[in-house]
Amino acid sequence: MGSDGQNWYLDLTYDQWTPLSVSGPRPAARYKHSAATVDGKLYIVGGSRNGRYLSDIQVFDLKSLSWSIIKLKSGVLPATSGHNMIKWENKLLFLAGHSKDVSDTVTVRFIDLQSYECGVIETFGKLPVARGGQSVTVFGSKLIMFGGEDQNRFLLNDVNVLDIETMTWSTVETTQTSPAPRFDHTAALHADRYLLILGGCSHSVFFNDLHVLDLETMEWSRPQLQGDLVSPRAGHAGVTLGDNWYIVGGGDNRSGVPETLVLNMSKLVVSVLATVKGRDPLASEGLSVSSALLDGEKFLVAFGGYNGKYNNEVYVMRPKPRDALHPKILQSPAAAAAAASVRAAYALTKPEKLDLSEREDSNFKEVHVDNTQQKLSAEISALGQQKKALESSLADVQAENANLKAKIEEVNSTHADLSKELQSVQGQLISERSTCAKLEAQIGELQKMLESMQSIEEEVQALRKEKSELERDMERAASVQKQGSGGAWKWITG
């Protein structure tokens, strides 16, 4: 589309991706970069291209539709890929990612958007192991980091929390079945309580599952999605607008995902919003999607990605306004019974919520009943607690079994892949050995031929010597004959 006018976005059709005609030079095409929108500008930092990490800071002005480059006044931002970028106050925070700067733990860096100064932020507590391909989600004044792949290609499914106000890391202990270790997934926050994890991959499996972590009870669950099917994918991008989670792109190393999905987090219903054709940049792995506020209306902005080639196109979607629904309670019955004790152990929510639950408990105790009812209620309550305890124990055992089964399946899958690679290598070795044997036989034959040629050469030299002697003898004989005949002629004529 053209860039005429400063309010071009008001003419966009709802729920359709539109490529933007950019004026001036564009940044290098890339994937696995980080992106964020601030005051109508899209910031793109780092990424990867042809196996090389990038460190540039590109800014796209959504009003003028033009790119510019930020030159830092102090500090250095290392070339990084697979990292996360979060807008916090007047700074951009960068977490984790793969780079040539080797570090054992996750590094947090910053860029001041006013002074353009860059640096490393000192963090405290239990620092997570360095990684890339993780997800980082804002939860109040905290950042929740899940999963990723460390520098030794070890897959992770741990949950770490960074308190931005104190810059202190903590590791969260969760219950029930955790998602299988993965990277290049996407995450979202729903109703200021639930962390949603969708898709991603291991070294041999691409996922399409949804996992939910209740941030009050720290309990994992795996609810079933309704509506359109979600194909396995990794390297996709997601952004939330209200109760709706927009999922774009991704792939499985064979083909890109052409559908843009919208997941209603209250209903857990998935719908296909738009579909692109062929090797469109929007059907890429490692692309980014951000939300931009333009004249009070929110838009989706996509950039980059890889689907056989690296992209640097900018696409915009004007999402149609959707009705806001009441948040759906995703908490399980077992979690509800243990909520109070777990809240005390893992307090990540606001104090008001805890105070509210205590007030509700005290009100419940003020209800008066007769002695018979009270005894019956007590027995029922005791039986209910025993049942819940047994259900909880059973759930824990089932969760542990499921977790072990998932690990066994992953080990078996990895073993199968390694076995295939070993068989392939053994086949190549057998082929190479056969080739070497043939070459050795040819070398032996050539050596024999060389030896026979040497003997032939000696015979030729001997024949040449005999020839030379014969020629000298013939010359001597001819000379003698000439001298004899000359004397006789002289005698006759004399």
TrEMBL record:
Keyword Coiled coil appears in the UniProt entry: yes
Transmembrane segments: none
InterPro entries: ACBP4-6_C (IPR056819), Kelch-typ_b-propeller (IPR015915), Kelch_1 (IPR006652)
Keywords: Coiled coil, Kelch repeat, Repeat
Stretches assigned to coiled coil: 380-483
Domain Acyl-CoA-binding: 377-477
Gene3D superfamilies hit by this protein: 1.10.287.1490, Kelch-type beta propeller (2.120.10.80)
Gene behind the chain: ACBP4_2
Protein's name according to its UniProt entry: Acyl-coa-binding domain-containing protein 4
A Pfam family reported for this protein in Swiss-Prot or TrEMBL: ACBP4_C
Cell cycle among keywords: no
